[in-house]
Amino acid sequence: MYLIVMEKTLVILKPCTLQRGLVGEILNRFDRKGLRLCGMKMVQLTDEILSEHYAHLSSKPFFQRVKDSMMTAPVVVCCYEGVDAIAAVRALAGPTNGRLAAPGTIRGDYSMSFQENIVHTSDSPETAAIELARFFKPEEIYEYKQATFDYLYASDEY
Ligand code: ADP
To answer: Is residue 152 in some structural domain?
Structure first.
């Protein structure tokens, strides 16, 4: 049976997104998809938090370069909620390499790079829980009823 799950996920708008003046356009992609914005703030990342966040890349030759890139300007961290939101947001973002990402995805439409690829998105429920706790205090995540909810989902979809 297909299990339907209401999920929260982390999105980070990377420094390249701020520097290229794309913050509004990228947030618009998530808005118009129908995801509920539960939290959002601007943060200057540090080597310490990035070493945790990108620990799965620590053996890669580009590890330090990716971390440095994420510290060149502040980022915008967002929490979005929706049914299957983790997979839906990953699909919206597209694969890591912007050059190979399909047109219509965020990376496919806005990125020519493996590294400078506009957004970070959580890749699993386990990672999303850890990442949201890394970047948000509990009181920074807001619960409210999405006014459009009944028009976003059928009654058997949540
Ligand atoms: P994703 O962000 O798609 O989940 P990863 O978790 O594998 O991808 O990598 C984290 C980030 O590290 C990527 O978004 C990208 O900025 C950078 N990165 C990953 N692989 C490469 C690579 N081969 N060359 C340059 N940067 C990379």
So the answer is: no
pLDDT at 1 over 80: no
Q: Which of 115, 127, 131 to mutate to test the pocket of ligand 1 (most atoms within 8 A of CB)?
A: 115
124 CB less than 6 Å from ligand 1? no
- Whether 110 maps to a domain, the answer reads yes
In this prediction the pTM is 0.97
Marked catalytic residue, from 16, 67, 120, 135: 120
CB atoms within 10 A of CB 62: 13
Q: Quick check: is 56 catalytic?
A: no
Number of domains in the chain: 1
User: Could you give the angle at the alpha carbon of 42 between the alpha carbons of 37 and 47, nearest 5°?
Assistant: 120
